[in-house]
Amino acid sequence: MRFLKTDGRLIGVLLVLAITQLIGWGTIGLPPIVGRDLAADLGMSLPMVFAGTSTLYVTMGLCAPWLAKAFARHGARKVMMVGTVVAVPGYVVLYFAREPLLYFVAWVILGMGGSATLSTGAYIMLNEVAGRQAKNAIGALMLVTGLSSSIFWPTTSFLSGHFGWRGTCLVYAAMLILVSLPLYAFGAPCRNIMKDEGGSAAKPSDAPAIPRSTFNLVVIAITLNAFVNFGLGAVLIELLRAEGLAPAQAIAFGSMLGVIQVSARGLDFLGGGRWDGITTGLVAGTALPVAMLLLMLSEGATWAVAVFILLYGAGSGAMAVARATIPLVFYDQAEFAKAMSMIALPLNLASAISPPLLAALLTQFGSRGALGLTLVFSCATVLILVLLGRRRPQVAAAAVT
Predict the structure, then answer these.
(1) What is each CA distance from 161 to 26, 94, 197, 267, in whole angstroms?
(2) How many C-alpha atoms does 248 have within 13 Å on its Cβ side?
(3) Which of 12, 22, 290, 325 is at a distance of 20 to 30 A from 48, taking alpha carbons?
(4) For residues 120 and 346, what is the distance between their CA atoms, to the nearest angstrom?
(5) Residues 260-282: pLDDT tens digits?
(6) What's the Cα-to-Cα distance from 360 to each of 44, 238, 241, 245, 379, rounded to whole Å?
(7) Helices 120-130, 100-117: crossing angle, 10 deg rounding
(8) Predicted local distance difference test score (pLDDT) of residue 203
(9) CB 322 within 8 A of CB 280
(10) Phi and psi of 393, rounded to 5°?
């Protein structure tokens, strides 16, 4: 937590991003709360309603590479301001939707705005302020944003109970304009170019170029883990029921997952940045295949399910921090912005594809089908992180030791 004591400017940026990221991620969480109302009003099935979220992730992924130059040229603040303005019409279109077509158009618009404002833009802004020392700041931000559903699911339920889901959309559009946009405009910093000891701007060419093969390994590791985390998170209750748990038991165990994940992020944050993203990923990533093997071999024993939730929750929670901070090991400033924007495409596509694919495996082959695929992906992630550890730049390796 040393950065909290030494950089008051960073605290201000964290406060701005904590509020805006909570709003950004919280407001798009409509389907879990008002999904049945949406389905009834729009004449859609419930799976089609939830496909709106998949549309959001696909759109975010497709837009992300196009934003790489914008982040590098204009800085995160301006891009996130534009993204906020773009997202507002998404909720207005959703308000006016009377058929599935406009419903999905709304999620496309929200995805376009989200590609500029959700997570990637926030991490780039923190990197602009703190450079390679942004790991702890990103961990602190993820600690807060992990609570978005805990805050906004009750909020959405309250608002929809008073104004209906359409009125809730207008409230969320107003929230973006009246809260998020002013915070970006007046509370977020303009891009800060890190200086070297002589006072001149540090040149990217001073650092050794990162091989393309290394970037590809980073992309594969992050994408595979995102597939596992987003997919299992979506089908966890059904997975536990397939293991033989009663519905009430499955929900009780599943509800523990979020708390454990946030706690793991907190422990990583309180660690004070002693590990970089690769080391965090290796330790956390190893817990995932262990958890899956235990569940596969236990025949649904209650004690094994409890240990699975503990190991998987802690591992996936810390891996979320690792996914965001592994690029910090290799890239800084404009290079980091470009790398994160390029990584966002496969990451978001994996997030969109994994829930329906794991659900299909669960339906066709039972829990062993879903667990088997995620086990293979988790083991592959660990192996790739081992390779990345050997490619760690000297400056990053010195910081770890």
Answers:
(1) 17, 17, 58, 37
(2) 0
(3) 22
(4) 13
(5) 877 777 766 655 556 788 988 99
(6) 20, 11, 15, 20, 22
(7) 10
(8) 46
(9) yes
(10) -60, 155
